[in-house]
Write a structure and sequence with these properties.
Blueprint (H helix, E strand, L loop, with lengths): L1 E7 L2 E7 L5 H8 L18 E4 L2 E4 L12 E2 L12 H8 L9 H14 L5 H7 L10 H20 L17
Helix pairs in contact: 2-5
Bound molecules: FE2/S2 (inorganic) cluster (2 copies).
One FE2/S2 (inorganic) cluster (FES) binds next to loops.
Length: about 170
């Protein structure tokens, strides 16, 4: 066991774990952050996604000792009681069915829009690729990403909105 320091959702945390312990286990079991989910445990489904320095990262296959930079989990997206535009869009579009995959969908969408605020349908599909939804909520996911992009563009413009977040209607799938 070793003391490992992590910065999670803006707070410095220290955990005493085996260095190879997957980050997902530490977040859920040691830090009580239940946003990231255990799905496959093999880096294949995306349910466990968190952001490390803004990059979507599969925490089930990330050794805790190997994490460099700030970690953001689903719990860290909202600020001062305000939902992040991606979270609000997920509510507005009523995306989840069983909900199990949705942490990964939301965190991946956040990383995508931070990198590319106006993704084309193809870029959106590729950006969300590999985050598996067993309930097939892909159409609603796409609508929510589009809605979030519009909201973020409006915020960036100050008021009135700029539009330009691309077209709608193409399927998003794994
Ligand atoms: S649980 Fe991490 S990718 Fe499936
Ligand atoms: S909402 Fe059920 S797995 Fe995606």
């Amino acid at each position: 066991m070793s003391d490992i320091s992590l910065k999670v959702n803006g707070e410095e945390r220290t955990v005493d774990v085996e260095p190879s312990t997957p980050l997902l286990y530490v977040l859920r079991n040691d830090l009580g952050l239940r946003g990231p989910r255990f799905g496959c445990g093999l880096g294949q489904c995306g349910s466990c996604t968190v952001l490390v320095e803004g990059v979507a990262t599969r925490s089930c296959i990330t050794p805790t000792s190997g994490v460099v930079g700030e970690i953001t989990t689903l719990e860290g997206l909202s600020a001062e009681g305000e939902l992040h535009p991606v979270q609000q869009a997920w509510i507005d579009e009523q995306v989840p069915q069983c909900g199990y995959c949705q942490n990964g969908q939301i965190m991946t969408a956040k990383a995508l829009l931070d990198q590319n605020p106006y993704p084309t349908d193809d870029e959106l599909r590729r950006g969300m690729n590999g985050v598996i939804c067993r309930c097939m909520t892909y159409y609603r996911i796409q609508a929510a990403v589009r809605r979030a992009a519009e909201a973020m563009a409006e915020t960036a413009a100050g008021s009135g909105g700029t539009g330009g977040a691309g077209s709608q209607g193409e399927e998003v799938g794994p």
